[in-house]
Amino acid sequence: MDRPLQLITYLVPSHPVELYECVAHYLEDELGVHATLSYESRDPVQLFGRHPNPFVYGHADIGFLSPMQYVKIKNLSAKRFELLPVSPVFVHPKNKAKKPGYYSDIIMHADFEKTVKSFIDLRGSNWAYTRDHSLSSSLTIRKLLRSFGENSTFFGNTKMTENHLLSVKMVQDKQVTAAAVDSVAFYNYKNVLHKDSEDIRVFDSIGPHPPYAVVCSKTLPVELKTKIINALFTISLKQTWADKFEKFGLIKFAVNSDDSYTDLGFTETTESNRGLSSVYY
C-alpha cells in the first residue's frame, strides 16, 4: 500500500477520539504501516447524500459505525465498503459472557433516587436523548414505552442533545431527570472524561444491542485486510496494548457478521422517521 492506512469513525464525540487513535496506533505498530484517523460527528446517512462518500473516493479504508448507521447505509447504491468479521467487546456489568454489543444505560441524578423507584415513576419528567434514530437512546425507549402501553407523551418534555456526552451532562446538571445513553459513552464519561461524576446513577440497563460495525473499503487489498482482522483479534494477547485499551473499557475484539443486524432492518424501516418527541401511534 503506497499511502497511509486511513481510518474514520462516526462514533465521536460520544466515544472518546483517543479510543480510535489507539486503534490507529496499534495497527501502525502491528502492521508496520502509517495510519491516519479522521472523525465525523454528523450522521453519515445525511453526509453521504450531500458530501463525497469517503469509501468511494479513497478517503477511508477502515470505518467504525453504530449498528443503526451501518444498517441505514449498507444498502446505498454508492456503497463501497463491506463488514469486517470483527467487533469490539466492552466491559459492562451485564456483559458476563464478554460478547460484542453494548447497552442502553438509563441514568439519572442521585437526587432523584428517593422519588424514582421504577421506570413508570418517570412519567411527566424531562428526558434527554441523542437523535430520533439512535438505537440506545430513542428506538429502545420507544419499544419500552410501548410495552407499558405508553407513547412519547409519557414524558413531560424531551430534549434532543445530538450526542451521548451532552445527554449525560444534562443529567449531571439536573437539566433533565433522566436519559438513556450508549453504555460505552457513559463508561468513558465516568472513567476517562469526568471522574467527578459519582452523582449519576445507572437506573437500569437494556440490551445487549447489536455490535458496533467495523467496515473496510472494498478496494482494500485482501492481504492487508486479513492482516488487519488478525491484528484486531489478537489485541488482548498483547499486554501493553491490552492495558491501553482497557482504559476505555475495551477488552478484546470478537467475531461479528451481518446476522447480528437482521432485526434492525425491520426497526429501521418502520421506526426511523418517528421521533421520540412526536406521537407516533
Description:
This protein has 281 residues and is of the alpha/beta class. It has two domains: 5-94 and 210-269, 3-Layer(aba) Sandwich (D-Maltodextrin-Binding Protein, domain 2); 102-209, D-Maltodextrin-Binding Protein, domain 2, CATH 3.40.190. The chain has helices at residues 17-31, 44-50, 67-73, 135-147, 164-172, 183-193, 222-233, 239-246, 262-271, and strands at 5-9, 35-39, 62-65, 81-83, 86-90, 102-109, 126-129, 157-160, 178-182, 200-209, 213-217, 250-255. The strands form three sheets. It has a five-stranded mixed β-sheet with strand order 2-1-3-11-4. The protein has a five-stranded mixed β-sheet with strand order 8-7-9-6-10. Strand 7, helix 4 and strand 8 (157-160) form a beta-alpha-beta unit. It is globular. The termini are far apart. Mean pLDDT is 89; it is low at 268-273.
List the helices and strands and how they pair.
Blueprint: E1 5-9, H1 17-31, E2 35-39, H2 44-50, E3 62-65, H3 67-73, E4 81-83, E5 86-90, E6 102-109, E7 126-129, H4 135-147, E8 157-160, H5 164-172, E9 178-182, H6 183-193, E10 200-209, E11 213-217, H7 222-233, H8 239-246, E12 250-255, H9 262-271
Parallel strand pairs: 1-2, 1-3, 7-8, 7-9
Antiparallel strand pairs: 3-11, 4-11, 5-12, 6-9, 6-10
Tags for this model:
281 residues, D-Maltodextrin-Binding Protein, domain 2, five-stranded mixed beta sheet, 23% strand
Total of DSSP H or I helical runs spanning 4+ residues: 9
**CATH level-4 homologous superfamily of the largest domain:** Periplasmic binding protein-like II
Helix and strand element order: EHEHEHEEEEHEHEHEEHHEH
Tell me the β content: 15-25%
> What is the third-level CATH name, the topology of the largest domain?
D-Maltodextrin-Binding Protein, domain 2
